[in-house]
Amino acid sequence: MISLTPSIVFFTTPTRHNHTPRFTAPCSTLxxxxxxxxxxxxxxxTPVPFPPIKAAKRVVLVRHGQSTWNEExxxxxxxxxxxxxxxxxxxxxxxxxxxxxxxFDVCFSSPLERSKRTAEIIWGNRGEEVIxxxxxxxxxxYSFQGLLKHEGKAKFGEAFRKWQVDAANxxxxxxxxxxxxxxxxxxxxxxxxxxxxxxxLVVAHNAVNQALVATAIGxxxxxxxxxxxxxxxxxxxxxxxxxxxxxxxxxxxRLNQTPNSPVGxxxxxxxxxxxxxxxxHGFTQTNxxxxxxxxxxxxxxxxxxxxxxxxxxxxxxxxxxxxxxSPKSACVETANAISRVQEAAECLGADCVPRYVxxxxxxxxxxxxILQQSNKDSSxxxxxxxxxxxxxxDSILSAVWEQSxxxxxxxxxxxxxxxxxxxxxxxxxxxAINIALMVHCLNLTKEWMGSFHLDSGSISIVDFPxxxxxxxxxxxxxxxxxxxxxxxxxxxxxxxxxxx
Length: 500
Known about the structure:
This protein is an alpha/beta fold.
């Protein structure tokens, strides 16, 4: 099935090797990860090839709804004493409605009651039984389980601090819980991928879903708490078989599509005052009609105008500090729509004065020049079908990456501007650049651009709990629920099966 809304994916498969993130050092083997006695040196997960698949497979991860221990602020771990609250049941019902039109072949669930009940609500009256798997249980936290957070701090002191600031090296009762979780998540993937179903629903927990996402795209334990999973948040991973066989290509289609707006709330329990909201411009006429998608700068069509307005409405209650856009027409039009709503939001009273929102433009958020150059230099230009850049030479991707580096540095300086304690910067750019910016946030290399996907009209949110000089936390990727009837279906493939 072909989606009506374009998207963009770099189908360049990253080499699954150890990388050095900004706050860790690499290790050479998984055995080393477990045998090292140096607790102060974070050690990376060593990716293991995934089993080959015969057909494209989409896996939808859902975290359980709010539980009684979530509400009380207790450390749950793999304990099974908490159940869904009324709010949690309502969240699960919202997720059921989000997924109601999608035909899943199978559902895997954690056996813990809060997850199992969420799975039952979402699965509804589908005939097949839910498969429970003990490996999908939440992270084992041993003596921490059942404690209120202030009790954990009082009772365990330095160990609790380690859990908060360096979870990958956190040790309790002789165990490294996050390292154990990563191993368990990797084992889960073998079972999920070996199942013959092409559309798979997995209902589990916060930490284990983080680990499933991270291990799928080749990230280690130091990325714990970097890829958020809210209650009933939905994440989607696409697995594409390779013609030559072997481990499939893997793309994170979306992260943490929540029942409620992703704009509010904390970042994994931490207050944040600095945030990027990455916006992909609305649909353009080029997406639909142009025989050559590289035919130049185009304004948005009617659908794009609707999408930009929906984005602006989503940000209505967010006090935006500045809007930075590409000079591309569709980006400027989207930025203007956001600005108008921001200014109007401050003028609901009779005597109100419109709030000025600073707007800037930078060429570094546009890739039109790079793609146009590829059109001139190449005798055969790969078709940009459905927003896929598959087939473009590495030199083009390198040029996009180099330009995104300049954009990232510029944006960090903007976020660090003095004068506001809370600073939200909306960035309206080409989807390719927005993908690259998220890869920069994770301190990965250009090869990881193929691990992420963005749709027209989507937003992605990056928080900085420790300020612009600290590490970014990704709240959501490719969020489209605000588009309503014009949104991208969560589980349906956005391109033809033949494209795989």
